[in-house]
């Protein structure tokens, strides 16, 4: 086990520079006296490259996570998975992780790149929207409450010759059973239904087809084949350029697809592409994670929580972000500031012996087990 800190200071004094700065700033406000008890801390784990490679546990992740549970199997220390991945509902991802890791993972412990799309329900609940990506993007949106959503696979099938090279493709897609059966009611006349928004829920499978159809939607005001200067809103669940999957070297992520789509769109349209990206390193993702961890802390460790603030939610002493990607996990934790503490593992995108130059983590370790060992010792919770 090998630790490498950003600065050689005693563990008892270890605190990221931005934490100290933000804490001094907070001291000027009335809520500074809200202090969590000594064991009020939580953890956020990236999945790909930290917990799993493909579908296989890495870095002794199974053993590491078991240390966060009581002997009875109940949650002892609040933690969640904070991933830019997705494509299936959080409830199903929780079941998959539970099976692979051998511990009970709750749906509330899974925060995926597209989880913030829930916040757009009020705006688009009854609007006609299109969702694309691997897995079941329309099912994901349907479970969030969007009532008129279809996958781009289904949508494209309503337009003859919209994909000019479809005849040369040797694969077919399995339609999403929960939503495709309703597609005839949602888009009874494909050419007349205006798409009010497009959502890239997960990494697209057919980049060429998706770029073509999305450009059709976005350059036409929502009705392919027509001309309209107004671009419907476009949302990306994340903006990772690369991520660690089962293959030894990094794979291109949703950010690479976004760059490709943007480049093509800006060449064929007189106005630049407008879009919104969610996922790490967006600070809002970390604020949301802090709220979720607070709920987990209240339900799993009620005796360890002091709720002195007006909202009655716990205040954490430290939240640990454990990730493998400096540009996403570490940058996000640094931008979020207090009380986030960043830990970088060498099991995924990051493989260097020395700390990352541009976004140095507060701690660098070999594996997620090393990270959990450090946290438990530092918090006197081992």
TrEMBL record:
GO MF terms, alphabetically ordered: hydrolase activity
Name of a matching Pfam family: Hydrolase_like
Keyword Hydrolase attributed: yes
Keywords for this protein: Hydrolase
Xref: InterPro entries: CDP-alcohol_PTase-I, HAD-like_sf, HAD-SF_hydro_IIA, HAD-SF_hydro_IIA_CECR5, HAD_sf
UniProt keyword annotation of Hydrolase present: yes
A Gene Ontology term for the protein's cellular component: mitochondrion
GO biological process, one term: glycerophospholipid biosynthetic process
Domain of life: Eukaryota
Alphabetical list of PANTHER family matching this protein: CDP-DIACYLGLYCEROL--GLYCEROL-3-PHOSPHATE 3-PHOSPHATIDYLTRANSFERASE-RELATED, HYDROLASE FAMILY PROTEIN _ HAD-SUPERFAMILY PROTEIN
Name the UniProt record assigns to this protein: Hydrolase family protein / HAD-superfamily protein
């Amino acid at each position: 086990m090998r630790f490498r800190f950003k600065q050689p200071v005693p563990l008892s004094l270890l605190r990221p520079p931005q934490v100290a700065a933000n804490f001094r700033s907070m001291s000027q406000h009335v809520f500074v006296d809200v202090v969590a008890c000594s064991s009020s801390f939580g953890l956020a784990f990236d999945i790909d490259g930290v917990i799993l490679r493909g579908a296989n546990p890495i870095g002794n992740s199974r053993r590491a996570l078991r240390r966060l549970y009581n002997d009875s199997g109940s949650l002892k220390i609040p933690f969640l998975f904070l991933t830019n991945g997705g494509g299936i509902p959080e409830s199903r991802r929780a079941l998959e992780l539970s099976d692979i890791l051998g511990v009970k993972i709750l749906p509330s412990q899974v925060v995926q790149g597209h989880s913030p799309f829930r916040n757009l329900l009020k705006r688009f609940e009854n609007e006609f929207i299109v969702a694309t990506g691997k897995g079941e993007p329309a099912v994901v949106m349907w479970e969030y409450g969007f009532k008129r959503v279809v996958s781009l696979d289904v949508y494209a099938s309503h337009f003859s010759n919209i994909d000019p090279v479809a005849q040369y493709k040797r694969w077919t897609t399995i339609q999403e059973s929960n939503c495709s059966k309703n597609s005839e009611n949602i888009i009874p006349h494909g050419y007349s239904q205006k798409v009010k928004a497009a959502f890239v829920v997960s990494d697209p499978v057919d980049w060429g087809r998706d770029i073509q159809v999305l450009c059709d939607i976005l350059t036409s005001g929502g009705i392919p084949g027509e001309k309209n200067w107004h671009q419907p809103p476009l949302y990306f669940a994340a903006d990772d350029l690369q991520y660690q999957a089962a293959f030894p070297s990094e794979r291109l992520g949703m950010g690479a697809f976004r760059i490709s789509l943007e480049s093509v769109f800006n060449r064929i349209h007189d106005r630049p592409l407008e879009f919104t990206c969610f996922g790490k390193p967006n600070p809002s993702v970390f604020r949301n994670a802090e709220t979720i961890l607070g709920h987990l802390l209240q339900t799993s460790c009620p005796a360890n929580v002091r709720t002195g603030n007006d909202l009655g939610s716990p205040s954490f002493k430290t939240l640990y972000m454990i990730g493998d990607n400096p540009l996403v996990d570490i940058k996000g934790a640094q931008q979020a500031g207090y009380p986030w503490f960043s830990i970088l593992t060498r099991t995924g995108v990051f493989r260097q012996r020395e700390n990352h130059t541009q976004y140095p983590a507060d701690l660098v370790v070999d594996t997620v087990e090393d990270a959990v060992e450090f946290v438990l010792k530092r918090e006197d919770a081992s």
